[in-house]
Design a protein that fits this description.
Layout (H helix, E strand, L loop, with lengths): L1 E6 L3 H12 L4 E4 L15 E2 L12 H11 L4 E3 L5 H13 L5 H24 L12 E5 L2 H14 L7 E4 L1 H6 L9 E5 L3 E2 L2 H14 L3 E3 L6 E5 L2 E7 L2 E3 L1 E6 L5 H5 L8 E11 L10 E3 L4 E6 L2 E10 L8 H12 L10 E12 L5 E4 L6 E5 L5 H17 L17
Parallel strand pairs: 1-2, 1-13, 2-9, 4-17, 5-15, 13-20
Antiparallel strand pairs: 3-8, 5-7, 6-7, 10-11, 11-12, 14-17, 14-18, 15-16, 16-17, 19-20
Helix pairs in contact: 1-7, 1-10, 4-10
The protein binds flavin-adenine dinucleotide (FAD).
Length: 413
């Protein structure tokens, strides 16, 4: 019998394993493919801890639908009869209410600021290594109107000390010379950081293995046997695996594992793409979020990545050439030298999206030994350490370091 079984070896599963092992628990991580096979591999690696405003803000639906109709939005919803997706979209629209914003921002601030501190600890202790740098993030705008449109959101960040500094014209050029001279300006969120996600997973896995965490790869969990309101066994192709506690950290696929237990998890796969390259000669030094096109350009010492788009088209991860090309053409609108060589990888991954843009962390109602850690949407890397620490505290019966109540599954039941 295992002590704790974590299902899913993405950044969230590894973070849970880390803090559970630190608390003295014996952990086994079970992964359907290989460590880092999911969204945690090819994402943009921003530790976007200033991103307190959720996607579901007043006016978001109108803006995105107009953008989709005009063909200017990076959002794509494949037309099909998917009742789960339709319900998700309706609830997303309902969540875009101004009265919901303050509580959502407070919840996001709690997990993001905790993660920022914990990442600092992990990197300063040398626990993990991943081209980590704190240079902030530039939100870059071609148009003055769009740039001005960020002023209101930026004001919301002032009480948290996270407001960005505006950089217009020559101030932008001197801060980031890799950007084109014809851009209007950028907002510089100075406190944000970035890292290389694949390197993070590689080094974290190594550290966990050395600390006794066991990994079982190529093992897709099929379901659970329950008895007396508990998970009695995890059902895997190799047979049954028994454990005192079970953590579901299966990203976009978590809902499928919970449904047979009668639990509704409104997580939709939000497909994104990235292209990883060698550094161009005029490589940005600061990660740039190319705002009108919602594409991120992330530089590392070891390379350079363009990533973005949000496609609701189911669980397929085949590469759509048009979307990959759109990343390149977007970068060309903002950067002097948008592409590097060689192209190392073209990739697609599925973000686990909740309609209220908050993760799902906490005990599964009615199943005593089942813990959930999923639904991190566009911020899974950023939120990973605080999620892992909170999961370990809840399992070990320690006082939680942040209020878990905004993240509970009960909000959807
Ligand atoms: C293009 C793109 C850019 C992004 N940029 C950023 C960014 O800059 N910053 C940021 O913070 N976040 C970013 N994200 C979001 C981030 O990648 C995700 O939120 C995060 O990776 C989710 O981690 P996870 O561990 O929950 O899921 P995953 O990494 O998807 O891990 C889940 C794992 O569970 C496994 N699994 C599933 N089902 C089973 C089963 N039945 N049995 C066993 N194993 C199973 C899967 O194989 C997978 O390995 C981006 C995402 C995309 C797509």
């Amino acid at each position: 019998m295992d002590d704790v079984v974590v299902i899913g070896a993405g950044v969230i599963g590894l973070a849970c394993a880390h803090y559970l092992a630190e608390s003295g628990r014996r952990v086994r991580v079970i992964e359907r493919e290989a460590v880092g096979a999911g969204a945690s591999h090819g994402n943009c690696g921003l530790l976007f801890t200033s991103d307190l405003v959720p996607l579901c803000t007043p006016g978001a639906v109108r803006k995105e639908i107009l953008g989709m109709l005009r063909g200017t939005s990076p959002l794509f919803i494949k037309p099909r009869l998917d009742l789960g997706l339709i319900a998700w979209l309706v609830k997303f629209a309902a969540a875009c209410r101004p009265d919901r914003l303050p509580a959502a921002m407070r919840a996001r601030e709690s997990i993001l600021s905790s993660s920022e501190r914990l990442f600092d600890e992990l990197f300063s202790e040398g626990a993990v290594a991943a081209d980590y740098e704190r240079r902030g993030v530039l939100l870059v705008y071609r148009s003055e109107e769009e740039f001005d449109g960020y002023t209101a959101a930026n004001r919301l960040l002032e009480p948290y000390g996270l407001a960005a500094e505006p950089l217009v014209g020559s101030a932008l050029r001197s801060t980031e010379p890799a950007l084109r001279p014809d851009l209007y300006g950028a907002w510089h969120h100075r406190t944000d950081a970035h890292l290389r996600p694949d390197a993070l997973l590689h080094s974290w896995r190594g550290r966990l293995s050395r600390n006794g965490v066991l990994f079982t790869e190529n093992c897709a969990v099929k379901g659970f046997r329950t008895a007396g309101g508990r998970i009695d066994a995890v059902i895997a192709p190799t047979g049954e695996i028994r454990a005192r506690d079970v953590v579901i950290a299966a990203g976009a696929w978590a809902a499928g594992l919970l449904a047979p237990l009668g639990l509704k998890l409104p997580v939709q796969p939000g497909k994104g793409y990235s292209i990883t390259m060698g550094r161009p000669a005029r490589c940005p030094e600061i990660p740039c979020y190319l705002h009108e096109r919602r594409v991120v350009a992330t530089p590392w010492k070891s390379g350079y990545r363009l990533g973005g788009t949000m496609e609701f088209s189911g669980f397929g991860i085949h590469l759509n050439r048009r979307r990959l090309d759109a990343l390149k053409s977007a970068a060309a609108e903002y950067l002097e030298e948008p592409l590097g060589r060689p192209v190392v990888e073209e990739w697609a991954g599925l973000r686990p999206m909740t309609y209220d843009d908050l993760p799902v962390i906490g005990r599964a109602p009615g199943v005593a030994n089942l813990m959930l850690a999923t639904g991190h949407g566009m911020l899974g890397v950023t939120c990973a350490p605080a999620t892992g620490k909170l999961v370990a505290e809840l399992i070990c019966g320690e006082p939680p370091h942040i209020d878990p109540s905004p993240f509970g599954l009960h909000r959807f039941q």
